[in-house]
Amino acid sequence: MNKIMELTGRKPKHVIIADTVREQILSGTLERGSRLIGDSAFARKYKINERTVAAGLNTLVREGLLERIPGRGTFVKEKSASKTVAFIGYYINQDCGEIINGIEETLSKNGYLLTVKCSGGNFQTEKKIVEELADEVNGLIVYPLIIKNKHNAAVFRNLQKKRFPFVLVDRYYDNFECDYSGVDNYSGSYDVTESLIRKGHRRIAHIMAPSQSSVVRERLEGYLGALKDHKIPFDAGLVQKMPFDEDFNHNYLGEISTIINKLLGLQCPPTAITTTADGFTILAMKVLLARGIRIPETMALAGFDNGSLGLFAEIPLTTVDVDFYQIGKSAAELLLRRFRDKDFSPVKKIIQPVSLIERQSSNPDFYKNGSYMLEMMNKKLNMMNFA
After folding, report:
1. Whether residue 102 is found in the same domain as residue 117
2. Same-domain pairing of 338 and 244
């Protein structure tokens, strides 16, 4: 506690009190369940105003590190006895389900339970869930919501300040370093764009998801990188971004149709289209087929993520394969590392490699490759979830 007396001239006294007691709790100097001396005794011992002592300690009460029990005193709050980790997703789809499987299997082998929560694409709900669960579980793995300039990065900065273990998956916040598990979005987008270039395409469009997350940005950068390396001039008219809709069940068919109209109306329209994700490419496919446009002869298409829909679409979809299970597994391993080492620096990012899968939507010779039937059978078996 002498640190308080040494630093009172540098920060407000109640902040020094909170910082010092917090450090002693997190380091184990003050054990969970132990009782602090009373506010008045604290004030007399260190010659600090009693109200200042109360302000500092109440900060830690709000953070969930202390609890004040009337008639008994102030105690270091006990941690939950159960070994539990929470996964929070903004939207639970098939890809997210594979991430959860990777997390759950890894945690269960190490004696941890997993609870799953969904924010439903609402920033305030996400914030509330994170803050509530931080008092109830040992750590968090979060698939965060990032739309335009709206996000909850400040919530996670606060958790980091408190040394509460968490890992972000799939996307991350700009200018904020933390543990993260994701994929090589740049290389995947670069490879799929380059594959189209090698087939002779020079007018390649890119349709972006309605978000400013790291995923969308990195996939755009991969597309641009491939064009640059192959000395193909950038045309801003070929890059189209969909408007955001707050309903996460919105299918964007109308928006895709409008974008296709813009692209086909260009003086020199594209001969190939890539998108941020398979779902958007499949919608583009529906629009193009409805207009009698031949795929891939007149318009080649490619997506990203390799979901089951891409293989069973009207025309099997060229895409980038992402191992979502491994994203979850690596995220759980990062969190277990924090639990084991109790070391909160430096942060660690695990980036999974991706691989290009060329199917009929960009490859006229697709059915000549005998691997198609085997791939389709494997997908069906995976969807049946045999154990």
Report:
1. yes
2. no
